């Protein structure tokens, strides 16, 4: 079933996508947001480093407020996953899980990134209660605490070094460390306790993290576990229609200052457009993407009306 043509279709209901919706709909564009709040990386997080947010705020609550704003201004929201993207002339086709197909004048990709998981017991259950995938986001919550970082590469080492500025005790769990000489020397000169040749087996705790069980049988008594295995971009949809990724790591979408991708009419914002993984960046990019996508859609309509 093909729906009527929508000016702006936004894929992703996190901070970038919802901010894009607010700005696009206020430019008098028809806007459809596809996605679920709970799939956003901040849904299970706590926020305290965002401008105008006083103290520690629940990420899920911020998203609910954002969703209410977007819908109040006139955006439509479908809590559905997108299965396929296509292009027909100047229009884009979007197929969703319910079987519906949407035609869009512009697309905004704001799907965030899918963090690589340890896939061990306790990881999912304790997410947001001691388990984190972003040192830069959550380090401040672990002042004078004991923490562990799990990972083999530069992201894990850099995260462990950052945590030494906050935590009382930092452990780095790595099976096979693969970092450059300079970073390795910084690690050696730091207070980080390195556990080489071992890996995480289970994250322990009831209501919050209380320890990390290693496959060697040793248990680290820690208050937090940071999983730093890198981030895998949710790129399959984008690359299927020719959107280009960054040429260095191929892990995020290349955009310009207008959040435009290499394909006219497709924009990207938030984590999918690259680091830093911060809500402030996502919201800023969402603002720009929503504004620009609405302008582009309105230009297309004016041109077709005058033809």
TrEMBL record:
Key words of the record: Flavoprotein, Oxidoreductase
GO molecular function: oxidoreductase activity
Domain FAD/NAD(P)-binding: 7-286
Species this protein is from: Thiovibrio frasassiensis
Name used for this protein in its record: FAD-dependent oxidoreductase
InterPro entries: FAD/NAD-bd_sf, FAD/NAD-binding_dom, Ferredoxin-NADP_redctase_2
Keyword Oxidoreductase (UniProt): yes
